[in-house]
Amino acid sequence: MFRLIKSTLLVLFSAGLLALSSQAIAQDSSKPAFISDALFVFLHSGPNNQYRIIGTVNAGQSVTFLQEDTATGYAEIQVDGKTGWLPKEHVTYTPGLLAQLEKLKAEYAQYNETVNALEQQRDQLNSQLSEAVTERQKAVEQLEQANRAYEQLKVQLENTQSAIWEKPMVLGSLILLAGLIFGLLLPLLVPKRRNSERW
Predict the structure, then answer these.
(1) The pTM is what?
(2) Is 188 helix (H, G, I), strand (E, B) or coil?
(3) CA quadruple 80, 84, 86, 88: dihedral sign
(4) Among 39, 90, 111, 121, which one is least packed by beta carbons within 10 Å?
């Protein structure tokens, strides 16, 4: 009987030492972690499922990893100011699908805003281009009208000039005027003979 009690105490003492040594070996540095994509995980007050449940942690929730109990495979975490234990298999250091989905939603919203801004800019450029095309068409029409008016004026001027030269009175008047001017200028052009005095 004494041997049985002694062996039982020895086993219990060894188990206690093993648990203490495993906790001492556990990591002391805390680091950010996430809950894997389970629906939710129970948070226990100690490093196995025999301890009472003190809450739940939702899938994808951001937590702080504190340490690991290698004997039981449980990890101590801190979430929302509460510290507890849960199976280490539920702790991951990469964001879960929920966090990735939120990140993708944010990126999609940002890309959507960029696309909307580019579409607005494209619409503005299209309206400016259509205005420029309309103004160019107006300018071309005005140029064509000016060319037509120029051609008409040119024809009218040619007709007027030919009509003036065809009238006999105008032609005779011009000849008379030319003769008069020639008659007035001729004495000035030809020098007068001077009478030289003899000695």
Answers:
(1) 0.38
(2) helix
(3) positive
(4) 39
